[in-house]
Design brief:
Helix 12 (230-238) packs across helix 13 (241-270). This protein has helices at 4-26, 32-39, 43-56, 60-64, 66-69, 72-92, 96-124, 127-159, 164-182, 196-204, 207-227, 230-238, 241-270, 272-293, 297-323, 330-356, 360-378. The protein is globular and about 60 Å long. 82% of the residues lie in helices and 0% in strands. The protein folds into two domains: 4-182, Growth Hormone, Chain: A; 196-378, MFS general substrate transporter like domains (Growth Hormone, Chain: A, Up-down Bundle), CATH 1.20.1250.20. The chain is mainly α. It is built from 17 helices and no strands.
């Protein structure tokens, strides 16, 4: 039995670790021009490096399955080891190829660590309290924006594009040591423990799991249909590219934190499925209203805030639900869930430009329409009847 203070300390430390991991993952987006100039490569080449990183993410679920077959602690340590390796390789080999290897390893590290951490919390926190706990750890996503990005920007301004990597490598190493010392040893592997292939088989033969993955796919696709073109829309509408996009980034960061905070307060009280349904409906309404209320830059940013706020609320509410769909393969399912999010983004990247050719209003309505499919899929997501473990 794990005592309350210990779990709370672990959740706090998990959140800090996720700030480190997500900072390493997200920093390439705002600072891609600086990195490309530092390496003397074109933005096209830098974008290709990100594409390779995305493709490599396909193997994330394979690595994350370690947390089911070998233990949650082993999965988290594997993820942090890959992050350390990723941050170190580009320090030793500061070239274009070194950057690609760094991005791939860091991404695989995130994909291995996060599902293992979520599975660990699923093992030790009752389902009726899990929404708040998962939401707190998800603040490591918005926290990487508020805390990580300013620090990365400061380091790059002072020491060049490579400057953040040594610090992130040190923080990743400290995270590895803390997890190793903090978490209890993984139980001995039982001879009858399901193999990696059996865990994947369980995921893809479970109707509830397939429904949950479908919901995630539609939710991701719906968000990206707007996300990919809102910058172009702001530029076309207000002719304030730099100012508008800069403000939009701040708005999105605030909305992410707000959505995560609301989940921690209400999702357990009203129920995860109800929270998701409310979030989907509100996200759809915010998306449809966006092109109509955007009569000025300010009103457009208010609309974007609402759209991203309810998306984050919905997405984070879905995580505790998914942790209880298939307890015997928690980490594997959560990893496939992350990969499904990436699949939704990839599909959106193909179809969104064609939709945008008919105007941003079309994107808003298509996004809302896709959310309807997410709502339908949600009705078929059911949590397992299996008992859960300790208390928080």
């Amino acid at each position: 039995m794990i005592k309350t203070p210990r779990i709370r300390v672990q959740v706090f430390i998990f959140t800090l670790i996720r700030i480190v991991i997500n900072t390493a993952f997200r920093m390439v987006y705002p600072f891609l021009p600086h990195i490309s100039r530092g390496l003397n490569i074109s933005l096209v080449q830098a974008a290709r490096a990100l594409s390779i990183r995305s493709v490599a993410g396909i193997f994330g679920p394979v690595l994350a399955s370690v947390a089911d077959s070998r233990g949650r602690k082993s999965g988290m340590l594997l993820g942090l080891f890959l992050l350390i390796a990723g941050m170190t390789v580009v320090i030793i080999w500061p070239t274009y190829i070194g950057l690609i290897i760094s991005l791939v390893l860091a991404t695989l590290g995130k994909f291995a660590h996060d599902p293992a951490m979520q599975a660990y919390l699923g093992d030790h926190v009752p389902y009726e309290r899990r929404g708040a706990v998962i939401a707190i750890t998800e603040m490591g996503w918005s926290g990487s924006y508020f805390l990580g990005m300013p620090l990365v920007g400061f380091l790059i301004a002072r020491g060049g594009w490579l400057a953040p990597f040594p610090l992130l490598a040190i923080l990743a190493l400290l995270s590895f040591i803390v997890v190793y010392l903090m978490l209890p040893k993984d139980p001995a592997v039982k001879k009858d423990k399901p193999s990696m292939f059996q865990n994947f088989g369980s995921v893809f033969t479970s109707g509830a799991a397939i429904a949950g993955l479908s919901m995630t796919l539609f939710l991701s696709l719906s968000n990206e249909v707007v996300n990919l073109v809102f910058g172009v829309w702001l530029e076309d509408s207000f002719q304030l590219q730099v100012a508008a996009l800069g403000l939009a980034s701040v708005v999105i960061g605030i909305s992410e934190f707000g959505g995560e905070s609301l989940v921690s307060l209400v999702s357990d009280r009203i129920g995860k499925k109800r929270a998701i349904a409310i979030g989907l409906i509100c996200n759809s309404l915010a998306g449809i209203a966006l092109p109509f209320i955007a009569k000025s830059q300010t009103s457009a940013l208010v609309g974007l805030f609402l759209f991203y706020f309810f998306f984050e609320f919905t997405f984070v509410s879905s995580m505790p639900l998914m942790t209880e769909v298939l307890p015997k393969a928690r980490a594997t399912l959560m990893a496939v869930n992350i990969a499904t999010t990436s699949l939704g983004r990839a599909v959106a990247a193909w179809v969104t430009p064609a939709i945008f050719a008919y105007g941003f209003t079309t994107n808003a309505f298509v996004s809302a329409g896709i959310n309807v499919f997410a709502l339908i899929a949600l009705q078929y997501v059911h949590v397992s009847k299996e008992a859960n473990s300790p208390i928080i």
